[in-house]
Structure formats: C-alpha cells, structure tokens
Amino acid sequence: MIVGHGLAGTILAHHLHQQNIEFQIWDSSQTHFTSSIAAGGIFNPVTGRKLEPTWLANEIFTYLFPFYQALEKKVNASFFFPMPLFRPFANVEMADWLNARREDIDNEFLDWKVDGVWVKKAGWVDVPHLLRSSRFFFREMGVFFNKEFVDGQTDISDFTQVIFCEGFHGMKNSLWSCLNFLPAKGELLKIQTDQADPSFILNKNGFLLPIGQNAYKVGATYRWDEFGSEPTVSAHEELKDKLAQFQLSDYIEIEKLVGIRPATQDRRPFVGMHPEKPVGIFNGFGSKGVSLIPYFANEFVSELQGKKMVHPDASIRRFNHLFSI
Ligand SMILES: Cc1cc2nc3c(=O)[nH]c(=O)nc-3n(C[C@H](O)[C@H](O)[C@H](O)COP(=O)(O)OP(=O)(O)OC[C@H]3O[C@@H](n4cnc5c(N)ncnc54)[C@H](O)[C@@H]3O)c2cc1C
After folding, report:
1. How far is the CA of 261 from the centre of ligand 1 (A)?
2. For residue 185, which of 140, 234, 112 has the smallest C-alpha distance?
C-alpha cells in the first residue's frame, strides 16, 4: 500500500508499476491537503550564491530528463518543460566577486554572460497536471482509492508492506516520530501580464516562471512557524514586492497557492524500510521534490528488489539507532 498521492507517492507508484510489483494507492486530500499542487515545479541543477551544482546533480539530472519524458508518453499528457533559467548578478560587486573566481566556480551547467549566468538543464514540471493524469491512469487500473490511513486504527494486515508518502503530514505519524522533519510553509502567486519574457525562468531572490498564455508563477515564500492551508497577508505582500523587483507593475492576480514543504533537519530525504516493521517511508524532499523524487523512487524500488542500496545520505538507515529506543 502506498499512502499518499502527492508527487512522491505518484512517482513511486509509477516505478513499482514499471517493475510489475502490485500496489494500491490510498489518498485523502480532503482531510490531508496536498502540497505538491502548490509547487512551482522548477528543476535547477545550480544552487546558492556560489552557483554550486546541487547535491548529486549529475546522477539526478541524468535520470530526470528521460524519466519525465517517458512518463508523459505513458499517461498521455504534456507536463515536462525544459527551459533556460537566468540568474542575473545581484549587483556590480557580486558580478566582480564571481567573475574573479570564475575558474574555480565554473561547472558544466553554467553559461556566463556580462549581466549574469544562464543555467542549463533547468525547466519546470506542471505538477498538478502530472498528478491529475496519473490519478486517471491509476483509477483506470483500479488501484487508486480515496481512503484515509488513520494512525493506530487502519488494519494493514491485507498488505505485505505499507509505504508512507504523506508529505509534511508524515510528521504526525507515530511510526516516524523519531525522524526530524523541519517543514516550511510556502506561498506563490499566479499572475497574468504582457510585461515579462515568456522564454525563460528568471531567478533573482525568488522566481518568475512562465507557464504559457501570458501566465506566470511568482514565488516563493518561506516560513517555519505556521502550517495552515490558507494564504496569508504577509506572504501576499512579500510576493508583490518580488514582482516589483522584477519590474512588473501591470499584472492581474489569478490565484494564490499554499503548500508545506516536507523538509528535514539534515536537508536530506527519508527513504527506506523501517528496521523492525513491514512499513517504509518515502518523504522529506523539501523544496526539491521535482528533481529528487524520480531518482530516489528508482533507488528505493531497486533496494526493495534487493538489487542495490539507497544512497546512505538519503536512506533512513542513518537513523536506525533511534528506532530501537
Ligand atoms: C510554494 C511551494 C513551491 C514549491 N516549489 C517547488 C519547485 O519549484 N520545485 C520543486 O522541486 N519543489 C517545489 N516545492 C516542493 C514540492 O512541492 C515538494 O517537494 C513535493 O510536492 C512533496 O510531495 P509529497 O508527495 O512528499 O507531499 P504532498 O504533496 O503533500 O503529498 C502528500 C499526499 O499524501 C496524502 N496523505 C497524507 N497523509 C495521509 C493519510 N494519513 N491518509 C491518506 N492520505 C494521506 C495527502 O492527501 C497528499 O495527497 C514547492 C513547495 C511549495 C509549498
């Protein structure tokens, strides 16, 4: 049983299906809201002020492209959009600082220009569309159920294994109480404007992501003290400030989106089986679910089949000493 049909549960289910492993998916978005719907959906192999490649960037980005392209064909939908991403230098000092260290900083994902760097192998996934088309696919197969898993009440004896892909709701599941989640609420705004360039993602203290028909996603905010599903006035103000920094003044607001990133204290995912029970977890993908989830779904399924072990920094084996306490 897979509990959760966010991006994590969905992509894990596709990997199980590919290996002819039988499964059911239970999801209850009316009682546990789905954060994946709010995702900007961006994948970007470069991070931080020093433009470093992200963790395991080579492996993860090599897997990502063919995976999403094949999934589009499988569920007959279009949701994968490679797109250049531009990171302008914040100011002259930053440009001078980076250019002076260019030889050390440079990597295969960067294309340097006078006013900033272009990032290769970036783009975005229309996550809500991926989820909708996959739900339709799994419903047709007869394996998708609108059911809630209730901790301490749901009988799992019909299932050989249960894998929890509950997003930030997982922090309330008593099976995983020893794992340190560090959830972060995020909001973004969908707007329509004629003032922006629809051919690339702009990344400057936030992002401006073109999603077609003069619509853009602007994001995103972070807060760690409140986890409601409602938009907040303070985040709205912050997002309008970002729009001003992007020099956009003439736009129509279409929608506010809210989600909770299932981040973890050591900033690495939680992947693997419980050391003592037939239950597993596939969670903790933080703000990088779109790029991390496909690669680790493949690693997890390989581990379940006894072919290879999940990377030690992502495996919950790193917490085995805590489960027996
Ligand atoms: C504003 C914002 C912007 C973001 N932008 C990006 C981005 O640009 N790029 C990127 O890679 N990532 C981004 N993220 C992060 C990304 O959204 C997450 O990494 C990813 O969506 C996590 O997916 P998930 O499946 O783990 O969790 P969720 O999407 O929350 O899915 C969990 C599912 O489990 C179900 N569920 C939970 N508990 C139960 C239960 N007991 N019984 C039944 N069902 C249950 C819920 O209904 C839900 O459908 C963003 C997040 C936010 C909030």
Report:
1. 6
2. 234
